[in-house]
Amino acid sequence: MTHNEVVIDGYNLLYKLFPASAETTLDELRGKIETALRRFQLRHKCSITIVYDGSGIRDSCCSSKLHTIYTASSKTADAWIIDYVKSLNTSRKMVTIVSSDREVSLYGKAYGAKSLTSEEFIGLLEKMTLPEFRNDLNYNGKFGNDFLDSSEVMKWKRLFENGK
After folding, report:
1. Domain boundaries of the chain, sorted by first residue
2. What's the CATH code, domain 5-162?
């Protein structure tokens, strides 16, 4: 699959890679993902935008072709991605959306974007640079599709409430 531009639902991907962990901050996890995405960019020569639900946490930034967006507190990453894909000229859409959120995927496809689930994208990252990928992320190759139990939900709530 050719990727001219990849737009990623950041926390969706983060959750799939890292089940709830009280030992690691969100900043550290975001840093690990962004390192892996830079490697992906070097290999695929594409632009990547990773979109996080901001809740007013930080400013958006851009380094080379990796764009990091933190949405306003009134807008979710899902809504930002959908609005962005809608805004593109339909004749030149070469965008791939990465999200396991069904609604985001369906809207993206309706507006001409390609779509990958976070799990499929993780598979691409693993194939591309398996040793580096695992080292960058401290990743053991396991992500879950299971529902969170109540203790995991509480860990995630604490992480988001503390802004870590």
Report:
1. 5-162
2. 3.40.50
